[in-house]
Structure formats: structure tokens, C-alpha cells
Amino acid sequence: MRYTSTRNNSIRVTAAQAIAGGISPEGGLYVPMEFPQLTAEDIQNLVPLSYRERATRVLSRYLGDFTEEEVAACCTAAYGERFDSAAVAPVVKLDEGCHVLELWHGPTCAFKDMALQILPHLMRVSVEKTAPGQQIVILVATSGDTGKAALEGFRDAPNTRILVFYPVDGVSEMQRLQMITQEGDNVGVCAIRGNFDDAQTGVKALFTDSDVIAALERNGMRFSSANSINWGRLVPQIVYYISAYCDLVAAGTVAVGDAINVVVPTGNFGNILAAYYAKQMGLPIAKLVCASNRNRVLTDFFESGVYDCNRPFFTTTSPSMDILVSSNLERLLYHLSGENSEEIAAMMNSLKTERKYSVSPEMKVQIDAHFVGGSADDARVAKTIKQVFEEKGYLLDTHTAVAVAVYEDYRAATGDTTPTVIASTANPYKFTPSILAALGCESEAAPYDQMQELCDKAGCSIPEPLASLNVKRVRFTDVCNNDTAGMQETVYRMLELR
Ligand SMILES: *Cc1c(COP(=O)(O)O)cnc(C)c1O
Fold first, then answer.
1. Architecture in CATH for domain 91-108+232-434
2. What pLDDT was estimated at residue 197?
3. In the prediction, which pLDDT does 159 show?
4. Is the entire prediction scored with pTM above 0.90?
5. Which partner from 81, 200, 370, 450 sits 20 to 30 angstroms from 335, CA to CA?
6. Is the minimum distance from the CB of 266 to ligand 1 under 6 angstroms?
7. What's the rounded Cα separation, in Å, for the pair 33 and 140?
């Protein structure tokens, strides 16, 4: 099993090299050169297994230079008691033909845990194989959930440091509290002036900053990434779509071979890309519905074939989806272009210089065969949360509500009644003020105290990691400028580089 780069397809690396390296040297993303195939029998054999066992089977197919024992050890370490559901990623029936895949039972109450609880283990094995003895510096730009989930995953991991940058104006109060109180001896957190795209651009520049790289080398360190561009982030996400399908088979909702649709609330395009990869492996997925909030770059892209970031950026009640540049789309385009890395490099260059690109008519046909886009604004999200709670007694978070609203529109427009799995990406308590407002409960209380109000209203319990936030010590209050000098200074200081 070999990997290549979206911008230079003569590159050949192993899974361990892709995971330890993060991004390809010329700026491309690592992609598998082929997709391991799941036969109907393979799927049937996964049905009676636990999440850990399903993960071990699926990941072994991709991690060619890991032994089966290494993969099993990573899965056991990741998907154990840190999840508050024995199923790890349970499927809940919302309606006839409509199911919610709850991806937020991990320690930070958001779907990023699904990948970030296992990434440190995959990374440790990968570094042992490719660069033994080196200290890894994980650098993260976050729109909120990634940062916290990465900090929790990597805290006190041996031979690892982790630095997280979050946009001052782009995370919820609860997300901010979760990050600034992070425990662990190897962690650093810094706010950055600007929005998520600014933070992501700044972090990308650090990765290739020759001064910083030289300073790291002098100190026996090297960068890697825990952002969703890292293959080690993406590959664990393929598992839960396959697992959800197995759960539907076990429940008798579908028979092996029956098609399902998948709806994903999308930001950086990692989660939905994993569903596409599951489809490429042979999982019977018909449509992939890509749900966006008011930042509907992807919706417009799926309609027109033009990806255009020349537009205003909106702060919404689903901040983890407030993104204009969806990095993982590059991987999809690479596969759909017939693995044409020159074409992809040209498109990404156009994105850099013009902030837009368009796909060829041939590629558009391919895209339409798999994907459909849709968007929902904040008012619609609030209405959806209230309606689903009142009619079905199920409390959605703001991100998942975007997906549910887009699914309702899709179903109304097409009449498509294929059994559907909607990815649910956060526990509603993570976005308490927006949820309370959606339910019509105006509150003056501080965000932390509003959780009790939501609990009184909705009757579901506050998850422990959020309930204990107010007794944690604040450790990180720095704010840095979003420029080379500001970010360099922060890295040197936090890593104590000489
Ligand atoms: C990260 C995140 C998303 C977006 O996922 P992508 O993989 O970036 O598309 C959606 N919802 C929540 C709650 C998230 O944390």
C-alpha cells in the first residue's frame, strides 16, 4: 500500500512516512494510490465485531507498513474507556429511514476525537519506523474543536510537543475555556488575531519557514501536523461510516449491498471525504450530501463547478464550519481528475493567486455522480433544532442541525427515500448558548452556567468533561499577531528553542 502526493504523483511513500510527515514537501496532500476493496462478505464479517475490531480490520488494509499487532494496539488504546459509549460511535434512529451517527462520545465531546484519540498512537509508531529518536512538534490551526481534541489526544504523549493556534474571533466560549485550561506538560495554546483561515494560513507558513525549521533541527525536533490534511487524521474517519453501515445491517434496517445516503456537516471537507473513501472501498453509498452553513463556498462549488473564496466570511452559530478554504477538497479533485497532479497543482496555484479555480466539465460530471451540496443559515438551524427537539425529543447541536436541514431540503427536492445516515459532529452542550436560544430560552447567564439551564429544559445530562470546566485552572492567555514575526516568536518561546 503506497501513497503519493496530489501535486506530484511521482512521489511514493509508505503510510508511516505519510503520517510522520504530515504534508508532502511540495505542498501537496498524501493520498492512497489505490483503495482496498470490501466485498459483501467482508462487510458481513464486520457486523458482529466491536468498534475496535472493525477499526483494526479496516485500518490494517491502509497501514501497509504497520503490523496487524501494531494496528490493534493503536485501536485498543484509542477506542476504550475515554469514550462514554461502549459502541464508540452509536447510530440513533431519528425517523423512518433517517439515522444519526453520533461521533461525539469522546473526551472533548466532538467528532474530532474519533481521529485524534488514535492519531498520537499512529504517529508514535510512524515516527519509530521513519525517524527514531526525533521529537515531534505538532502544530495545529483550529476553528475550535480540532485544537481541544488534538491537545487531549497528544497531551503527555512521549517525545511529542503540541502547539495550538486558535482565532480570537472564531471559537465559542466553551471551546475557548476547554483550550485555555488544557492540562499536560507538553502543550502550548495561543490565540491569534484574525479568523480561522488566517490561523490556517499562518500555520501553513510556519511549516515551511526555513528559520523555524533550522531552529527545530538544532533542538532535535521536527514539525508534523494533526490537522485534517494529515493522512493519520483521515484514515480513522473511514471506519465509522463502515461501522454505521454494519450497525444498520445488524438492526435489520438494510441488507448487505443495499445503498444508503450519507449527509455530513462540512468545513474542511475531511469528514465527508472519509465517506467518499468508504464508498471507493465498496461501501454501498449512493449520494454524499455536503451540508454547509452560511459560508456556502462548497454549495456553490457543487452547483457551478467553480470554487470561489472571493466572498465575505461569516461568523455563524456553527463555528467549526466557518471555513472558506476546504483543504481536503484537493484530495477529492485529485482522484476525480484521473490522478492528474499537474492539473491539481495548477488549480491550487489559481486558488492561491486568484482565490478561485474551476473544474473541467469531465470532472464536474464525476462530482455530480457522487455529491450534492446544500446550505442552511443560522435562522434555519435554530428552527431545525427546536422542531426536532419538540417533535422527536432529540437535541441536535448547531453543526448537526445544518446537516439535518440540508437533508430535509434534499429529500423534499428529490423524493429520495434511501436510508440515510447523518453525521452528528458535536454534543449539543458544546454550543449551549446557541441551543438555548434556538429553544426559545433567552439567557443572561455566563456560557458555563447556561449548561444547567439547558439541562433543566432538555433533560439530558451535561457531559463530564464540560461540567468540570469551571474548576480548571486557566493556563494560556497569550494573543499573537497573525504575521510571521508574531507566530515565529510564539513558537520559539513555547518550545524554548535555542
Ligand atoms: C470539524 C467539525 C466539522 C467539520 O468537519 P470537516 O472534516 O472539517 O469537514 C463539523 N462539525 C464539527 C462540530 C466539527 O468540529
1. 3-Layer(aba) Sandwich (3.40)
2. 78
3. 87
4. yes
5. 200
6. yes
7. 27
